[in-house]
Amino acid sequence: MQTCALSLLVFTGASQFALVGALAAGGNPLTAAAGAFFLGVRNAFYGLRLSQLLALPRAVRPFAAQWVIDETTAVALAQPTRRSTRIGFAVTGLSLYVLWNLTTFLGALGADAIGDTDAWGLDAAGPAVFLALLAPMLKTGTERAVAGLAVLLGLGLLPVLPAGVPVLVAALAAPAVLFLEGRRRGTARNDAHNSDVPAHHNDVPEEDS
């Protein structure tokens, strides 16, 4: 019942894997929930964009919000018209929600038959899918720098911090890189401005010797 409720209410794979993984590693429930919540925050930004593209009635939006995930966003953004955007979002959301919860139910019933999931390498399936979705989106140097720094922080702090905390610290990669990028651009603008300003020399008459 707990497993099925998690998939029904927290319909975002990355957050589910983060929560369960942190709890399985002995992490604090609050820390595990915080990590799962932070990973789910990206869906809020997806929602901002999709609300403009879908333009759904206000009464429908709370229900559509449940289906705002990586896959539905990717399919919706790839459509050329509003009608196809709505169809793509609805079909993807409905099929994934039904299949996700059905397979969650089957997995919960047959978990004992699987045995040791580590032996099957199932723990790597979630991160692998997430990376496959993320990689094509890293088109600029800034985005790649954020991703690279996040990986270094997450993996580097994994042995020394409680389970669930490294992913929270890794989130600092985005503001850190953006801050440095902003400073670099500010310095470049100042240098360009200074090079365009002519030097002013005071005409000082030479003294007679």
Highlighted features:
single chain; 209 residues; mainly alpha
Structural class: mainly alpha
Strand content: under 5%
Poorly predicted regions? none
Largest sheet: none
Rounded average pLDDT: 83
Helix content: over 70%
Q: What's the β-strand tally?
A: 0
| Total tally of structural domains | 2
**H/E element order:** HHHHHHHHHHHH
What's the total helix number? Answer: 12
Describe the structure.
The protein has 209 residues and is an all-alpha fold. The protein folds into 2 domains: 1-115, no CATH class; 134-196, no CATH class. Helices cover 73% and strands 0% of the residues. The model has no long low-confidence stretch (mean pLDDT 83).
Question: What secondary-structure arrangement, pairings included, does this model have?
Answer:
Layout: H1 2-9, H2 13-24, H3 29-40, H4 42-54, H5 61-65, H6 70-77, H7 82-114, H8 117-120, H9 125-134, H10 141-157, H11 165-170, H12 173-196
Helix pairs in contact: 1-7, 2-3, 4-6, 6-7, 10-12
Short structural description:
By secondary structure, this protein is mainly alpha-helical. It has helices spanning 2-9, 13-24, 29-40, 42-54, 61-65, 70-77, 82-114, 117-120, 125-134, 141-157, 165-170, 173-196.
